Amino acid sequence: MPKCSCEISEFSCSVTAGGLFAVGWWWFVDGVLIAKHEGTHFGFEMTIPGILVTLGLICVNMLRPEDIRDDGMGDMSDVNKAKTFFFIAWMLIFGGLIAAIWICIADFGNASTTRTTTYPGVAIIMQTIVITLAAVIFWMGRGTRNSDVFG
User: How many helices (H) and strands (E) does the chain have?
Assistant: First the structure.
């Protein structure tokens, strides 16, 4: 049986992650438009989960995988700072996911509201899930080589 050499390039991972990021925000805009068509309130607080997850995506991908690897080489304080920054970035992402679920349950799952559809709340959750997936794909697709594309 032939051996599969399935190596995914950094380019294809970045394109996939960028596409997922765009789909996530597109999903959010669709939810806003559905809510506007329905005539219900869709305030700024509904954008906070997407903003948190987007900031988390940016922060996670500011670091290279080598920056958080504890290989005993180099200054340990730099590795610890990078790990702390990485942890905070993931807390932003998970905070956004939790906020999206909270908003969906509080504003769209309540039986006493006048909303006729829960789709805008589901769109917020799907936006955060898809952007989180984009962050994971972009992070995992980055090479661990010492090649620096930008200089």
Answer: 4, 0
